[in-house]
Amino acid sequence: MLFSDSHGSVSALTAVFDWANAFIPPNGTICAAACCGDGLVDLRAAADATGFYSDWKIVLGNNDYGVQAPESIVFDFEDHRFFMTHGHRYGLYGGYNNLLAAAKNSDADIALFGHSHIPFYKVVNGITLINPGSVARPRSKAGACFAVVECSQGEAVKVEFFGLGARGAIKPIKI
Fold first, then answer.
1. Using an 8 Å Cβ cutoff, are 55 and 62 in contact?
2. Fewer Cβ in 10 A, N or C end of the chain?
3. 3-state class (DSSP) for residue 134
4. Can you name the CATH fold of 2-173?
C-alpha cells in the first residue's frame, strides 16, 4: 500500500488503515506500507487508532517538521528494486528527468514519490513511476486517493488506485 501527503489529516489515514485491515494476511495481501512523506506525524496516531501496523517504508517530505527520516530510500521487494522519495528535491513540476536519473543511479526499476498531490502511473525508459496522490489534499479530479502496488515474482507490477469518499468510503478509481 502506498500513500502520501496526509498533511495532518489523521482521519483520512484512519479510513485508509481501517480499509487495509481487511486485507492483511492471511486474508489478503498487504505486506508492507509506504508513506512518501508530508504526513509522518500522522502515521502513529492513525496506526494506534486502527491497530494497523506494517513493515513501514517512510521518507521525509518538505512539510515533515520535527521528524527524523531519510529523504530517500532504496529497498527490494519480490524481484523489484524501489527508489522512494517525497519528490520536492527533484523538480517534478518541470518533468521527471531528475527522478528518473535518481532511480536509475539506484538500479531501481520502480520510483515511488509524492509531493504533487496528483496520482500518476507511467513507465518511462523502463522505470515505473508511481505517485499515489494525496489522501487528504488532492489537486486533481481523482480526489483524495492512495495506491496498492502488487508485486509478484517474475511479473510486472500492477497498480490500483483507490479514492476516499464521504465518511471514509473507499472505492477503486481510474486515473
1. no
2. C
3. coil
4. Purple Acid Phosphatase; chain A, domain 2 (3.60.21)
